[in-house]
Amino acid sequence: MSEDHIKISRDGAVLEIRFNRPEKKNAITNAMYGAMADAIIEAESNDDIRVVLFTSVGDFFSAGNDIKDFAAQSAGAFDGPRHVGRFLEEMIKAEKPVVAAVQGHAVGVGTTMLFQCDLVYVAEDARLTVPFIDLGVVPENASSMTMVDRLGHTRAFALFGLGEPLLGKDAAAWGLANAALPSGEVQPRARAAAQALASKPAQSMRHTKKLMRDREALMARMREEGEIFAERLRSPEAAAAFSKFLQR
Ligand code: COA
């Protein structure tokens, strides 16, 4: 990875993880998952860090998993450790609050990771999609549970099954996001919220977050999805979807 594809910075007690691959709509490679997992581990173990904030450069929050990586995994041509599972697990395990600023569109894990965050600010014109079925795979990141819990079955199914986008204003109205804002206001609002969280009693914050989330259930669902996802990745349906995208 170009080290710059994930930018890590600190502002006081807030650790900011920034997607910085705008030329590929912030699609996430294996190495980028690794850098994000490491950053969350560092945030959890460092008492000087109290909040994690996700932001991005450009007009996309993230176009999701890099399809070239998917295609290589599908063809059994992917060597070395895979970091996506580590990233998803660290997000679920995180005891410190996580805030996201979504000032553009999001696809796949770019959307499902928002359901693991504690505060989410989206652009009014954001489009959040989860095209797992179109790609021949299945929902990941416990989203078959979190999206149903948060949005209700039929709304979640329209997103998964029909590939309909969740628009920014609906994300706020339906309980995914705290607010839908003009795009230029999203990051300042999220940064202010992150700083406000960082100023509160840290241990009370940690206990409250733990009490509010059933981490065991999230982890169990994420692993159950992961097994089916891995099988589906090697399916002819998935291989056809990846090669269609790559040959556009
Ligand atoms: N993986 C790898 N590359 C991606 C990518 C992804 N998930 N999403 C976008 N890119 C690349 C494109 O291949 C293109 O690269 P190029 O300029 O070298 O050709 C560049 O990013 C710009 O994308 P483009 O498709 O031209 O932009 P767009 O605004 O027309 O469309 C998307 C943006 C996100 C709607 C479209 O790129 C897309 O559908 N991407 C796939 C999203 C996806 O299915 N992700 C997996 C979810 S599980």
Automatic annotation (TrEMBL):
<keyword id="KW-0413">Isomerase</keyword>
<comment type="similarity">
    <text>Belongs to the enoyl-CoA hydratase/isomerase family.</text>
</comment>
<dbReference type="GO" id="GO:0004165">
    <property type="term" value="F:delta(3)-delta(2)-enoyl-CoA isomerase activity"/>
</dbReference>
<dbReference type="Pfam" id="PF00378">
    <property type="entry name" value="ECH_1"/>
</dbReference>
<dbReference type="InterPro" id="IPR014748">
    <property type="entry name" value="Enoyl-CoA_hydra_C"/>
</dbReference>
<dbReference type="InterPro" id="IPR051053">
    <property type="entry name" value="ECH/Chromodomain_protein"/>
</dbReference>
<protein>
    <submittedName>
        <fullName>Enoyl-CoA hydratase</fullName>
    </submittedName>
</protein>
<dbReference type="InterPro" id="IPR001753">
    <property type="entry name" value="Enoyl-CoA_hydra/iso"/>
</dbReference>
<keyword id="KW-0576">Peroxisome</keyword>
<dbReference type="InterPro" id="IPR029045">
    <property type="entry name" value="ClpP/crotonase-like_dom_sf"/>
</dbReference>
